[in-house]
Amino acid sequence: MSSTNTGPSMAPTSTDSTKRRWRDIALLGALFAFVIAGLAGLAAATGWEETKAQLMKLTWQQISLLLALSLVNYLFRGARWHLFARRLGLPTTLGQDLRHFLGGFAMSVTPGRVGELIRMRWLKRETGWAVERTAPLVLMDRASDLAVMALILAGGIALSAGGIAMAMPVAVLALLAAFVATRPSLLAACVTWTYRLIGRLPRLMGRARMAARSLTVFTNAPVLIAALFLGLIGWIAEGYAFHILMVWMGADIGLAKAVAIFTFSTLAGGLTGAPGGVGGAEAAMVALLSLEGVPLEVSIPATAVIRLTTLWFAIGIGLLIFPLAEAKSQAAAA
């Protein structure tokens, strides 16, 4: 019976996996070229010499610190993933959960980051748990990120002034979405309402309702507080990286404002549904920095560097770990 349920899609051939890997690499290359072309166009409009001078200010030690702060984010959020996995009852170790979490970053460039759901496929192979049982883990991870980023954004706006104040509606929407996503009965009611509205996909909606109700296991104060703490440390670390980068480039806009701009841009990029938020996040960051009086010859290289040391660094880590995670899961399923 189990072999019938898995089917070809759950056990792809090596040829299919190779084709998908090359397709993903091609998508990565295209997205990277898109970002570089866009930023290069802006840099050309403001003068290459000024942009180059700003980039040359950075040392390898400074770049290493930015990468280290990003790594803090990934590891703390990976620890949160492990916390949720244990609470759900998954028989996985911390090493397994970190491998799944970090390896999933390789699929961050899929629209809406849905490719990261490959973590559930790895869990199915290694634990035998169906996707419906592990779906709450992914939902809680996303909801926690929304809640944490909304709190950080709201706090940053409260502690600063200026153009970033316009970001408050985004913070409110993110917090509302996180609230709904972590309330089993409310989320199940939303799924039911959606089904009645569209009148289609009964099996998918049924599974969504089942996943929503299973979130009850996470409605535990100590677990939610610990998850909030881990997420806050992780995302503030990257926001602080953006702050010190601006200081190094001679455009100190203040810690609170820098963290708020970074957080808002990340959320804005995600709301576009574009792979990895590419395009939207960069545009929002440059625009908000311009509102704060930061010249383009500073905002453009700052945006390029912070995106390379956050999003693209995460994707690089994911590409390194992905083959190991795939091999380990296939070996467990054999």
UniProtKB/TrEMBL annotation:
One of the record's GO cellular component terms: plasma membrane
Lineage of the organism: Bacteria, Pseudomonadati, Pseudomonadota, Alphaproteobacteria, Rhodobacterales
Membrane topology (UniProt): Multi-pass membrane protein
Record bears the keyword Acyltransferase: no
Coiled-coil ranges from the UniProt annotation: none
Source species: Pseudooctadecabacter jejudonensis
UniProt subcellular location: Cell membrane
Record's keyword annotation contains Transmembrane: yes
Keyword tags: Cell membrane, Membrane, Transmembrane, Transmembrane helix
Protein's name according to its UniProt entry: Flippase-like domain-containing protein
One Pfam family per UniProt: LPG_synthase_TM
TM regions (residue ranges): 25-46, 58-76, 146-166, 172-195, 215-236, 242-264, 271-291, 303-325
Secretion signal span: none
